[in-house]
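User: I'm writing a short report section on ligand binding and want a predicted complex to refer to. Could you take this sequence and iron/sulfur cluster and write out the structure as C-alpha cells? A short remark afterwards would be nice.
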Amino acid sequence: MLGIYIHIPFCKKSCHYCNFHFSTSLKNKEDMIKAINKEIYQKAILNNDKVSTIYFGGGTPSILDVEEINLIIENIYKNFNVGKNIEITIEANPDDLSKYKLNDLSKTKINRISIGVQSFIDKELKIMNRVHDSKKAIKSIEMAKKYFNNISVDLLYGVPDSSIKSWNYNLDTISSFNINHISAYALTVEPKTALESFINKSILSMPDEDLVYSQYKLINEKLSSKKFINYEVCSFAQKDFFSKNNSAYWLRKKYIGIGPSAHSFDGKSRSWNISNNKKYIDQIRDGDNYYKKENLTKVDQYNEYIMTGLRTIWGVSVKHIESNFDVRFKNYFLKKIKSHIAKKNVYKEDDLYLTTQSGRFLADGIASDLFLVNLKN
Ligand SMILES: C[S@@+](CC[C@H](N)C(=O)[O-])C[C@H]1O[C@@H](n2cnc3c(N)ncnc32)[C@H](O)[C@@H]1O
Ligand code: SF4
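Assistant: Sure. The C-alpha cells for the complex follow:
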C-alpha cells in the first residue's frame, strides 16, 4: 500500500498565514510539469508497491489546466503499479472552480475534491488575503456537488476577530450542504508570514486559547449530531468517507512525495525535496541531487508513533510499542501517560491509549511530554 503526493507549487495570491512552498509566478509552469513527470518516472523504477491513493496538494493544484493534471495521472498509471479502488484527490481553490473546470475534472480519474473555503465570512477572508469571497465559496460547493460525490471542505478557526458566533455561522453554512468530509484547522502563526508581522506590529491579534478550544468543541458538537467522526484532530468525516490519504498518513503508511518541498516516508526514513522551483527544475533536468534524507532512529520512530497515535481515533497501542520497540520504551510510556490520564486528557481501552475530546485538542502538547530525547538503559 503506497500513497503518492504531488506538490503543485503555484498560487494566485499569497494568503497571509501560509508558509507552504509556492510561487505566485507561473512562468515555470511548463518546465515544472516536465520535472514532476521525470521525478515520477525515476521514483517508479525504485518502487513496486501497489498505489492506493494519489493526492494533488499545494500550493494550488486547481491552477493547472486539466490536460496538465491528466498528463501527471496518466504518467503515474504508466509507471507505477496502481490499485483498483484508488482514491485520487485534488485540492482546489473556489476561485478556480467554474462549471467547465469541474466538468473537465470529473472526466479525469480524480474521484475526490477538497475545496479550500476557509470561511464563509468576507471580513475573515479579507484578513486571510484569500482570492475568493463568500459568494464564490458557496457557489463552488453547490457546483462541485453536481460533479463529485466525495467532497471535502477546508475551514479555519481561531482566526483574528472571529468569535463563537462567527464560527457557528461558518459551521451552519457548511452543514447546510450535506457534504461528508470537513477539515477544520486551528490557525497557527507561522514564521515569516504576513500574519506574523501583523501580530508583531499589533495590527491583528490572535484569539485566546479558551476561545479557540470553545470553537473546537463547537465543531465536535455540531458535527457529531450529523454523525461525523473526528478521526484526526483536524479531520471530520461520516462513516465510509474518511480520507484514505489522510488515514494512511496518520497510520504511518509509506508515501512518495513528488515536486518541490514534497516529503516521502518509507517507515524507516524520511526525505524532502528542495523547496525552490527553479532549483528543483534544474536539478531534476541535470540529474543532480534534489532532496535530503534522514534515517529515523528507533527514538524518532517511537516519537512519531506517539504523536500520530494521540492525534487520531486509532490511539497508541502498548503491544505495538512492545513489539516494534522494546520494554524500555513501554515502561517510559506507561510512566509518563499517568498524569494525562489523571487530567482526563487520555483514557485506556484494552491495549489502547486514546485522547478524550479535550485531550485530542491538546494532542501535540501531550505527545511532546511523552517524547523520548534519548534512551538510557
Ligand atoms: C496549504 S493549503 C493547500 C490547498 C489550497 N491552496 C488551499 O488554500 O486550500 C492546505 C490547507 O492548509 C491550511 N493552512 C495553511 N496554512 C495554515 C496555518 N498557518 N494554520 C492552519 N492551517 C493552515 C490551509 O488553510 C488549507 O486548508
Ligand atoms: S493557503 Fe493555499 S492558496 Fe493560500 S497561499 Fe497557502 S497554498 Fe496558496
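A remark for your report: The chain has a mean pLDDT of 96. Residues 17-18, 20, 57-58, 60, 91, 93, 116, 118, 154, 156, 185, 187-188, 190 surround S-adenosylmethionine (ligand 1) (CB under 6 Å).
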